Q: What sequence folds into this?
């Protein structure tokens, strides 16, 4: 059906994210005492629609759908939900969905703003496989940072309950906080590996396009800053035993910073918007 | 045959009387045999635990007559001369079935919802079954009772949570640490409660227990029992680098651990999570240590309040459980009536068959 575009599929996915977000509030109010299967299924349904939207867009343009802000946001959100669906297969970690759904819903609504999805030009920003891989790896990295922030939110909520002797801490079906910390750490590590791999392609792409290995560009500088920040975060954990609340707040804060600033630097970048 | 029950439990009689009527496991088969030989019961099961002694019997006698017989049997078996009135209870169908289902589900237990009784009931039934003292009637209702107990456990919150301080402490530890397998526990002051808590942690997989007590001998005895080691009481702080859980129950009149003392210890242990359980009164640990990152402090009141809340939650489930039991008993009785009706209808034919066979 021609009138039913990939954006419609994504809109349906966002509706499911919204339902999941609302159901998550119910789970939270109930103290996470019920199995999170319903939320998992809601997010699974959303992920199917979300994947369909991405496939449709990808096949329409015959390339990885990461050409504008809409596609970038959709890709990052997809990474988060896909990683959640894998991690959520572990019964106790399924409650990550209750925290992820709000971020996914927020990202979905943001992505659907019409100005973020201008028609493709005859000369797309990412015109070959290497560029698509570069963009995909970076967005996957951001997705991993996003899910790590979700685990950190869950950690903070449970840690607060444990510290202040709230009954919810013990009555809930949430996983132990040490396991959440491990998940958080693992996802940050995945994120930094993916980001490193994605950024490693930058000099090659700049050489192809501009004949230089390095070019001063807001998004490139921003990406290096993000890379350094996450690296420092992980080093502080390994070297100085940084853990617990402070580590979790760092994971949440840094992802919130990415969410709020990434799109601005993308728009400011002449390399990515020639 | 109707199923009846006679018994004494913690609800109706003191421990002195219950222990007087208790049956040793080895003597139950003989008791069941003599009960059946007496003609009071066609089938029987004896349940004897520290909180109850009950006889479940399938009998074709009138309930009043059967109860009198069972009471006499109890008195004779245990050489008890005094009268038994309020101390015992008797139920005929359908209350007897409801009672059995309640017992199986832990609804009649001293600790509401506890699961140990189900195991004891299964053992009692298995013993009677092994010695062929049960038949179609008791087999069916006991199997149904076990099913109902399982259903209640999985579909209600009657058995959810810990209702003792020691098990609440274990549950807390499981909310903090990924697994208790590699956890080291330090017991400061070897009191009864700290011993129970350490034992509960050990049973859930804690790796080792270190005991620090003013009496070195007591520390060594306890450490040996736990397979751990004893340290000098004054050296307990030196253990903080390795341990994950500390249980404190000394009789010190002041705090033995405060924020100033714990801060450098936390640095030394690279801020790994630390669960502090303070079960001493007066308290051993300054509540201000809870403000330190990765430190989780619970005192006896906190643990007791969680245990009480669990108990309250269990009490709220009683109505749901009773409704389930009521429905299941009705279903069982309906099945029984239809089987009885079918038996009655089959009877003339079997009579004819028998006549035909004799004619042959």
A:
């Amino acid at each position: 059906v021609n009138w039913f575009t990939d954006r419609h599929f994504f809109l349906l996915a966002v509706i499911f994210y919204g339902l999941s977000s609302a159901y998550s509030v119910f789970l939270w109010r109930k103290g996470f005492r019920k199995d999170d299967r319903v939320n998992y299924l809601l997010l699974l349904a959303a992920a199917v629609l979300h994947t369909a939207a991405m496939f449709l867009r990808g096949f329409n343009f015959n390339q990885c759908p990461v050409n504008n802000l809409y596609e970038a946001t959709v890709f990052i959100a997809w990474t988060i939900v896909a990683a959640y669906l894998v991690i959520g297969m572990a019964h106790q970690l399924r409650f990550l969905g209750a925290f992820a759904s709000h971020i996914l819903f927020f990202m979905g609504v943001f992505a659907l703003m019409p100005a973020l999805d201008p028609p493709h030009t005859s000369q797309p920003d990412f015109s070959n496989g290497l560029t698509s891989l570069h963009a995909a790896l970076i967005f996957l990295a951001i997705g991993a940072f996003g899910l790590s922030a979700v685990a950190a939110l869950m950690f903070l909520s449970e840690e607060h309950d444990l510290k202040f002797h709230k009954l919810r801490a013990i009555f809930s079906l949430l996983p132990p906080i040490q396991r959440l910390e491990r998940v958080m750490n693992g996802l940050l590590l995945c994120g930094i590996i993916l980001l490193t791999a994605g950024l490693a392609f930058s000099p090659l792409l700049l050489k192809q396009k501009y004949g230089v290995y390095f070019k001063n560009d807001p998004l490139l500088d921003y990406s290096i800053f993000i890379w350094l920040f996450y690296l420092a975060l992980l080093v502080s954990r390994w070297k100085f035993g940084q853990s617990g609340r402070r580590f979790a707040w760092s994971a949440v804060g840094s992802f919130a910073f990415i969410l709020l600033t990434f799109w601005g630097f993308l728009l400011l970048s002449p390399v990515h918007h020639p | 045959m109707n199923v009846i029950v006679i018994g004494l439990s913690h609800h109706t009689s003191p421990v002195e009387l219950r222990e007087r009527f208790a049956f040793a496991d080895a003597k139950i088969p003989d008791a069941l045999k003599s009960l059946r030989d007496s003609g009071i019961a066609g089938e029987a099961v004896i349940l004897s635990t520290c909180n109850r002694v009950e006889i479940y019997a399938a009998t074709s006698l009138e309930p009043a007559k059967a109860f009198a017989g069972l009471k006499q049997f109890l008195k004779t078996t245990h050489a008890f001369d005094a009268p038994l009135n309020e101390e015992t209870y008797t139920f005929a169908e359908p209350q007897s079935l409801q009672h059995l289902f309640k017992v199986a589900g832990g609804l009649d237990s001293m600790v509401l919802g506890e699961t140990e009784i189900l195991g004891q009931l299964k053992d009692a039934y298995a013993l009677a079954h092994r010695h062929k003292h049960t038949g179609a009637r008791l087999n069916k209702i006991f199997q149904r009772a076990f099913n109902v107990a399982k259903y209640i456990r999985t579909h209600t919150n009657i058995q959810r949570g810990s209702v003792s301080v020691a098990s609440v402490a274990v549950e807390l530890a499981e909310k903090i640490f990924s697994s208790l397998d590699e956890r080291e526990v330090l017991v400061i002051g070897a009191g009864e409660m700290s011993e129970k808590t350490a034992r509960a942690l050990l049973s859930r997989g804690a790796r080792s227990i270190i005991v620090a007590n003013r009496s070195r001998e007591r520390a060594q005895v306890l450490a040996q029992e736990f397979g751990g080691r004893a340290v000098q009481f004054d050296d307990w702080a030196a253990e903080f680098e390795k341990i994950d859980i500390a249980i404190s129950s000394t009789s010190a009149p002041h705090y033995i651990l405060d924020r100033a003392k714990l801060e450098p210890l936390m640095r030394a242990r690279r801020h790994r999570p630390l669960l502090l359980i303070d079960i001493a009164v007066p308290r051993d640990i300054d509540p201000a240590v809870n403000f330190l990152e990765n430190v989780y402090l619970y005192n006896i009141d906190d643990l007791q309040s969680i245990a009480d809340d669990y108990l309250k939650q269990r009490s709220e489930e009683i109505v749901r459980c009773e409704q389930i039991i009521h429905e299941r008993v009705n279903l069982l009785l309906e099945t029984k009536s239809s089987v009885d009706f079918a038996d009655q209808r089959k009877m003339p034919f079997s009579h004819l068959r028998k006549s035909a066979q004799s004619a042959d």
Q: What stands out?
A: The longest helix of chain B spans residues 318-359. The longest strand of chain B covers residues 2-9. Chain B touches chain A at residues 161, 168, 171-172, 174-178, 270-273, 290, 293-294, 296, 298, 302, 305-306, 309, 313 (CB under 8 Å). Confidence is low (pLDDT under 50) at residues 346-360 of chain B.
